[in-house]
Amino acid sequence: MPDQACVSFLKWCLPRLGLRWQGYRKVHRLVCKRLNRRVAELGLKELTQYHAWLMAHPDEWARIEAMCRIPISRFYRDRDVFEAMASTVLPEAAGNVTRSGIGAVRCWSAGCASGEEPYTVVLLWRFHVARAWPGLDLRMIATDADEVAIARARTACYPPSSLKDLPQAWIAQAFQRSDGLLCLGGALRDCVDFRLQDIRQAMPDGPFELILCRNLVFTYFDETLQHTMLANILDRLAPGGFLVLGKHEALPAGPCSLARLASRLPIYRRVVPSGSEPHVVAF
Q1: Phi and psi dihedrals of 197, rounded to 5?
Q2: What share of the chain is helix, strand, coil (3-state, %, to 5)?
Q3: If pLDDT is split at 50, 70 and 90, which confidence band does 273 have?
Q4: What is the pLDDT of residues 230-263, one digit of tens each?
Q5: Cβ distance 46 to 39 under 8 Å?
Q6: How far is the C-alpha of 111 from the C-alpha of 246, rounded, in Å?
Q7: What burial letters (b/e) apply to 139-169, b meaning 16+ CB within 10 Å?
Q8: At what angle do helices 28-41 and 3-13 cross, to 10 degrees?
Q9: pTM of structure
């Protein structure tokens, strides 16, 4: 199907799903390939026919929503963000929970795809932080709406290309080779509780000292839904807790109880009292 026809179709259907075209500009060809396959499956010839078929079969909207999920991920993606988490975020979170008498740093990875992000945090904790906080655990909940991605995450076996940004020493200590894949060891794999969950419909109970919501809500959702999701996320973020976004994401306009750690990094701390607008503070 011509690319422009697909773009026009996406600009029509995305707002009806609470999604925004701006977030899909760079990845729309992936969605278009999926739409092309679906059109062929239905025995249709073009998107105009699919448009008419869709209007007569409202259950198809759920299929379109699934085709709009973008599962791009890898370990240690955005190295400087994870380095800041290792040097600042996780140690500060550990200090906060220790002073509060809580036995673990509680984390949530929203839109975790195949698990690379939450497992990277587990590795950061293991190799950078845990030694300084003996007896303190890291508890990670990871959620995604894609059943296939969650199944892969629980298996925790990845092609070497997914680990290309990880330090080689970590790979040697934490992974075993199996049929051409690198599989995370059981003790580390068991640190993450994976849950099949659409963030628009449900979220895990908090509070959390660290929430990662990267390349999902603030990329693909429309502004109204972003505000709703942000309010629900903040309800689950502990005072002094950290929210991490994707590198090219921004919070929706308006006041909130978050202070940005540094202008170049998408890491925010929840401050008290609430109601202040985000501002920049140095590390």
Answers
A1: -155, 130
A2: 45, 20, 35
A3: low
A4: 999 999 999 999 999 999 999 998 878 899 987 7
A5: yes
A6: 12
A7: ebbbbbbbeebbebbeebbbeeebbeebeee
A8: 90
A9: 0.91
